[in-house]
Amino acid sequence: MDDGTPAILLFSCDDIEDWEYLGVWLTGADLPPGAGPADVWECPQLAVAGDRAALVLSLHDGGVLGDVVACTGRLVDDGGLPRLEPEQVTVLDAGEALYAPQLAEDGRPGWWLMGWVRELDQDAAVKDHAGCMTLPRRLLLDGADARLTLDPAVADGLELGPPAPGEGRLHGAASVLVGPGGAELGHAELGRHPLSAGTRVFVDGDVLEVYPPDSAPSTFRHELPWSVHGDVLSSPVRLRPRTSTC
To answer: Which of 68, 147, 224, 237 lies in disulfide reach of 173, CB 3.0 to 4.6 Å?
Structure first.
């Protein structure tokens, strides 16, 4: 908007080649507290379950990429057009690297979701990529609550080496499972992060993803390594070379 308020515009596209503008659908003034500052909502994604919906927004403010949030509420009919009645805003990832996730229905509970792990200090000479992708996640909606979890297909499908007590520096490609005694992640610049029992941690080079059993995941990217201490088992992730059938 002209005053810097973020907004989503509504279009009709019954004919994918002929879009009709229907007006402003939602603005930052419509949201309850907790959304965080933004002058642009990037990559809006709407997950609908009956008369409930979660609007996933990536917050952009003054050129700075911020949090990814879910705005949940009722989806009502307003003269033949859908209208969201926002009730709650939830931060979906507690780290600092997730941005611009995309979601899709795949016939299983919730929605398949995959996000971008941004790479802010990338060498300007590198032209073939910009960051990387997270592991696939699930967006789950329960009333006014929206949350992200690790997609079970990932947990079941990764090929892991034998688990072993894994305190110390995290490097390469590895999976860490926190036992009943809990644990703690440490980083020279990003500080310490306690880990509750049942938390899964995945490290892939300079990317680290944390999946607690009862709170939001966290995504980090940093060239300096992390360390973990406590009741943990670590398994190497066996990477398979890419093959092509072309």
So the answer is: 237
